[in-house]
Structures are given as C-alpha cells and as structure tokens.
Amino acid sequence: MERLPKVAIPAIIAAIVLIIILAKSAVTVSSGQAGVLYKTFGGGVVTDEPALGEGFHIIAPWNNVFIYEVRQQEILDKMSVLSSNGLDIKLEASIWFQPAYESLGKLHQEKGEMYKERILLPAIRSAARSVVGRYTPEQLYSSKRDAIQQEIFEETQKFVKDQYIQLNEVLVRDVTLPSTIKDAIERKLRQEQESLEYEFRLVTASKEAEKVIIEAQGKADANRILSASLTDKILQDKGIEATVKLSESTNSKVVVIGSGNSGLPIILGNQ
C-alpha cells in the first residue's frame, strides 16, 4: 500500500474542518418558523435586527440560532376556579396565540423558549379565576358563557400586553359544576320552563274565551238589531213571498183554507 503524500493529510484535515464549519454555519428555517440569532462574541441575543425568516441562512460557526414557531398555536388548559359563592368549578379553555414576530429577539432574551409555561399559562389561569369569581354557578352554566369568555380574553390580554405575545382568542370549551349543583340548576330550569308553558296556556285560553265572548256579543247585537227592524208589515210581506214561491213549486200542493191572525193564508200541506 502506497503512502499518502505528505500534503494530502493536511488537505484531508482541512476538508473535514471545512465541512464541520459549513455544517455549523448553515441554518435552515422551516415554514411557519423564525430564528433568533445569538452572537457568541458579539453581544449575545440580537434584538435590534429582524428575526431570521424562512429559508437557508449562513452564520458564523461560533454563533447559534434558536428556532421559534411563529404561526398561530393553541394551548388547551384545564383548571379549577371558584365561583362567587365559593363553589369549585372545573374550567376548560383553549388559548390561541403566537409570539410577536417583530419582538422575537426580546422574547427569547427576557422570557426564553419556555415563555408559554412562564407567561401565558399563569396569565390565563389568573384571568379565569378573577372572572369566574364574579359569577354564580347558574350564570356560568347558562346565560353568561359568552360574556365570561370575552372577559377572560380581555383580562389575559392585560397580562400579556407587554410580554411580546400576541393573544388571538380565548375559548371556554367546557364548564363543569359539582353534580349536585348541576342537578339543582337543571331542575330549576325545568320548573321555569314548565311555568312559562303554563302561563302561555293560560294566556291562550283567556284569548280564546275573549274571542268567544266577542263573537256571542256580536250575534246578540245582530239579533237585537234584526228584531227591532222586523215590523208586522215586513213579516206579512215575507210571508206572502214565501207562499207564492211554495205555490209555484211543481212538487208542492198547497191548500189554502182561509187566513190566520196575521192575514196570511194557512197552509195545510205541501204534498
């Protein structure tokens, strides 16, 4: 086996060193991510320059890049809070957030990669306890869910306002009450619903009765007006008209034997 030339060994070593340097210098930032540059000999975390965007970057081999997810993210948190009357409430909330891209360097320098655990989760829990403590279990279970959700968002927003975190939404997914309280609330709601239905039936029945009375009154008034207008002359004329029509019928046989007290013919039969 032939010996390598003396110049070949340093060349191989130089190539290996170059490969290592290039490997340390090349940084690829994936889609939806950004990089924070740390200069080992240049003042640490770079906060006065934009974060490294998506794509391929070359940096000094002695520097480092910390990769952050900058797309919207979600944290699902379950917590125990107290209502206004001291009852233990289980709350499940979903937090939509993302780091503030333009302040990513400051976020890394001041809060670090654990910023969700250090800042965001304590903020949402503190806000939830503060807001839920203003409401009764009945309000939490029924009508105030949307209002509570909005208030928790606003309270959390105050905590993270200057923490380089962009809070997009807080969603209250579930509110779990103690079983005894939940059953009592459901019974109360059923009773209220039954009471409303009963009141509706009473109102409907009252309107129906009023309608019948109005119709009867109208008929009575009509009959009274009609009776007042029927004079003896009108009745006699009507009787004559009826007698003439009956006599003209091909199927009737009329026998006239005289006149009654009203002066009209007396009809004994029409067959």
From TrEMBL:
The keyword Nucleotide-binding does not apply. Residues 24-189 form the Band domain. The keyword Acyltransferase does not apply. The chain crosses the membrane at residues 7-27. SMART domains: PHB. It comes from the Bacteria. One of its GO terms (cellular component) is membrane. CDD domains: SPFH_prohibitin. It is a single-pass membrane protein. It is found in: Membrane. This is Prohibitin family protein. It comes from Gelidibacter gilvus.
